[in-house]
Amino acid sequence: MSTDHAADTADESTPEATLDGDYDPSEVEPRWQDYWVETDTYAYEESDIPDADTQFSIDTPPPTVSGDLHMGHLYQFTLQDFVARYHRMAKDTTYFPFGYDDNGIASERLTERELGIRHQDYERREFQEKCREVCADYEAAFTENVQSLAISVDWDNTYKTIEPRVQRLSQLSFLDLYEQGREYRQRAPTIWCPDCETAISQVEQEDKDKATTFNDIAFPLIEDGNGAADDGETLTISTTRPELLPACVSIFVHPDDDANQHLVGGTAEVPLFGQEVPIIEDDRVDLETGSGVVMCCTFGDQTDIEWYQAHDLPLRIAIDESGTMTDRAGEYEGLSTEDAREAIIEDLDSEGHLLESRDHQHTVQVHERCEHEVEYLVTEQWYVEMLDRTDEYLEAGREMEWYPEKMFSRYKHWIEGLEWDWCISRQRDSGIPIPVWYCDDCGEAIFADRGDLPVDPLSDDPPVESCPACGGESVTPEEDVFDTWATSSLTPLINSGWDWNEDADESAETADSVDAESGKFTFDNPELYPMNLRPQGHDIISFWLFHTIVKCYEHTGEVPFESVMVNGMVLDENREAMSKSKGNVVTPAEVLAEFPVDAARYWAAGTSIGDDFPFKENDLEAGERLLQKLWNASKLVDQLAPETDPAEPDDLAAIDRWLLASLDDTVESITEKLASYEFSKARDELRTFFWSTFCDDYLEIAKQREDDSAAYALSVAHRTFLKLFAPFLPHVTEEIWQARYADSATTGSIHTTDWPEPRGYEADIAAGEQAMAVIGALRRYKTEQGLALNADLDRVEVFADVDGFADAISGAMHVGELVVSDDAPEIGTEIADIDLDYSIIGPKYGDQVGDIEAAIGQGDYEIDGDQLHAGDITLEDEAFEVREEHTYAGEGELIETEGDLAVVVQN
RNA sequence: GGGUUGGUGGUCUAGGUUGGUUAUGACACCUCCUUGACAUGGAGGAGGUCGGCGGUUCAAAUCCGCCCCAACCCA
Description:
By secondary structure, the chain is α+β, with helices and mostly antiparallel strands. It is 34% helix and 22% strand.
């Protein structure tokens, strides 16, 4: 057995396990879950000489901590667990950590809700303390939930994304990227959530359909392209957002818009607000909706930003950070955007500027967290530069193995479509502070010392007495915090213990290509990095995975993952996304109240990796039945082969050798499939081999025998089956293992034993299959005759090469006398049909193939030794096969004539 | 609007990259069977021409084109 974690804690009492009675998962499953956690079964064993080749590290994206698990968690964690359990058994030491993502708006809002407080009322550190307290409760519940799914996480290796160690690391990352020249601070238009009052990034927005009104507004024309306009002439602009009128800076017309071409070069007056704005030509105008003449406001949408930059337009800010109208809006100042909209529509109407208001459906961008419509504001933010290195990031993606391969294209297209650098600053109170102060005199940014991290500029002093640039003595702390992705993208570094080490000497493992003046970046566990596997959903390829690659690559010069396993989303039974509004949500709690965890895992294993995956009660039932089958078969094995570790007999019976040789093939095949994340194929192949071949065929034979050879094969096969099933069905396999195989010498879990390897048995596989075919024929015969399957048969003659299997056949089928002969003296043979090998005759005879088929169909052919003359064509023997039909004139009944096999029953 | 992925018996699904005889399995369905563990079991059966159209080829579920439908990503 392999490294045995539980051996250290041998005094922990191993739960009692017996093979009596029925299998009761509701009692068994929690019992082992507790045992595994208590005995640290899944602890990562750091060896004295860390070696990247003998460990397997998984970088799990930390889930947001909030309340209950959903099916996506169950599914995703379980897939990760298959990988971890397989590798743990297959010689690797497995690093399977767990992270809690409690750094972000989600946990901040959770805390406010839970405690009935507002973050504004507390100092940042104080509020963060409260967050941690609230999250701790949720995390405990979450941990318990995950443990109850038998996820084999090393619970000594967990982290929280807000904990001080991670804060330090996140700030170190910021300083390092800045020193490398990868970060900058800039005042520019940003996507802004007026509800959360923070900048957000492109990926934090989502589409939302919204009912609104489209308003046609008449703008008095002052000049058209040819000079002064006629008095009273207007142009019409359709907008859903009249509250932006005070921010209007220009009007655009499409170059192909002949009807409005005369306006270009002119000016118009914005109704109610009076500013005169130019009319400009630009092909970004959408000709489909509205009047084809559009206003540009600073800023209503992204096109406005593009126009503002391309045409060097003035800036008119009418909406502030909280979504309130500014003094630019005149009498509407202080109103919310919504109230202002209504008031302005009313006033436009009463002054005769409103031509029409009609209902309209359109898509707006909202903040994914709070569903509030975003605004575009000009603010000062920190950015990570990315657009200049997209080629390198693409190459980094190419270096990873993608499972499934096709998911790489998502990554590729995302990078190719990048338009913004990464805005990493957020105007939130909770979060990891950006460790910077600014000189009040010259604006110089003063960065924290690495040794002092983590710091909070709002509470801590800067590392210098005065500004190093101008000598100024007063500074203003940065109030902003990092985007949560700025930290979540560091998980490979968090997991492998990346840190800045002041005193690192030359011999220490260097984690960074850039060696600063003193100290360097080091890894506590360099053998873990790069991580072997990153499992995750396909929905987060574009930001989480991408940002992780960017950050880790910039810090270490290495691609952080060897491979990526991408799972799909869990759908309902009708293949529709689960959502509260549809009312089709199924929760793990509901499922597990009805089904064993192992059955849920069986369902989860039914996935083709990368595809969306419907919830299927059928599969859970099938899983439950498999548990029972495994249990019952184990009981029979235990009866037939009470000795658990028998010596191999010298003369292994043909049927036993055949079973073990087939098992060898299965071991090899299952291993390959697990190693390449083909869970569904592994599961189904293992189930079929166990159920059909082992239980239905072999066990039925074995239970008629009582010899050492059978007992040996039974024991070896059973032991192997348990291990092969262990990653999928950890509870039932553990229970059976403990009941039958664990003894004082092998105390501990099946999950820390060695993965099976082929034992090198060779057998006449063809003869074995012939024998199974004979048994199949006899079963069919009994069924058709209305006989019980254990009914006696007087005499059976078999004409086939099943020599070594004769006893197996007669035992299993209760045959009194079994005669095996190679020839078929009493059997007459006639040709039933000719099978053509199209792969040979196709390329050779081309369109003559039809003639050959027609000739055979009409009986216009002749067999001449090895050759077949069909019509005008002569085929050589490799091109065809004669299918014969047997007739039997002797005593008894001929029941099977498949291929060259014949079975005669005399009863 | 652009892109990606998928569309195989009633349901879910394998196969598709390397075109080749009877398209895989599970669930459901029908018939039969209490076999030294399992009726949550066993044996057998019926059911599809592979979204639609067209093309390449002796031969297409598989390759190519167009169309339809669905999901996702990006505008």
